[in-house]
Amino acid sequence: MPEMPEVDAVARRLRENASGEKVKSLKVLRPSMCRPQRAEDLEEAARGKTIKTIRRRGKHLFLELSGGVTFHAHLRMTGNIFTVPDSRFHSVNARAVFSLASGRGIVFEDSRALGKLQLASAVDILKVEDSLGWEPLDEAFTLEEFVSIARTSSKPAKIFLMDQSYVAGLGNIYVAEALFRAKVDPRKPMKNLKPTNLGRIYDSIRGVMNEAVESVYSAYQQPGSIAEGEIFPVRVYDREGKPCLICSRTIRRIPQGGRSTYFCPGCQR
Fold first, then answer.
1. Is the pLDDT at 81 greater than 90, yes or no?
2. Measured by CB atoms within 10 angstroms of the end CB, which terminus of the chain is less buried, N or C?
């Protein structure tokens, strides 16, 4: 699933390549992606509008157009949104295509067809914003704020960090790497952790996400994976059965919250 760095890369590239473009038309190729709204309503709303900006909040994307029209996109498991030189040419996995006046296009591609694209009112946007916790790289997200929310939760560290209502945008890959750097067992309850451990988790989240944002932007190709060209150092994620790069103990994988958790039993205590 795309995490904050991947969604951030999508937003940055769209801002660079599509801001100021006029939408000639929108074609929703898979109407189920906008239910309970009608595909026809989305297509009508986009026609003739100018793309003002694209912004990210957590794992959510908001495409803000002229006339007060905003599209809310969520990539879910396999979604990706990118510009193409000619809107007439796209893959079979394209679920929606914005044809631009310049001839170029914005394609919402999604092999598993789980992504969502809907019109969002001001109230809809506020509901999304209110449901999300701190942005991990926001200057206002201080160690004190992190400790404050951590002390309220008995959830295991991995599950807590995956909960978007606490910290928005974190996902399986980067949570695993952050907890490894912090040397914290993913099964330990947050409220029971020592201040030093919470401090290491906070620093690791900030460090991992800063590195990942730049790495993903330079090499992002598809959701849910670390591309070959990325420089982000993966040390535990998807390395079950392999020796830890620090202590040589065998990396373990356990189920947590319906997802796989990877950790080193030697380094993370």
1. yes
2. C
Give 131's Cβ-side CA count (13 Å radius). 13
Active site residue 259: yes
End position of a domain, from candidates 131, 156, 182 = 131
Catalytic residue among 49, 56, 57, 59: 59
2: annotated active-site residue:
yes
Q: Are residues 167 and 224 in the same domain?
A: yes
pLDDT tens digits, 217-239: 766 555 444 443 355 788 999 99
- Write down the pLDDT at residue 221: 53
Query: Which residue segment(s) compose the domain that 40 sits in?
Result: 4-131
Neighbours of 265 (CB within 10 A): 13
Identify whether residues 34 and 62 lie together within a single domain: yes
Active site residue 136: no
49 part of the active site? no
Which one of the listed residues 3, 109, 177, 230 is annotated catalytic? Answer: 3
User: How far apart (Å, rounded) are the C-alpha atoms in residues 50 and 23?
Assistant: 6
* pLDDT, tens digit, 9 for 90 and up, residues 13-23: 999 999 999 99
Last residue of a domain, one of 131, 166, 196: 131
Res 233: pLDDT: 82
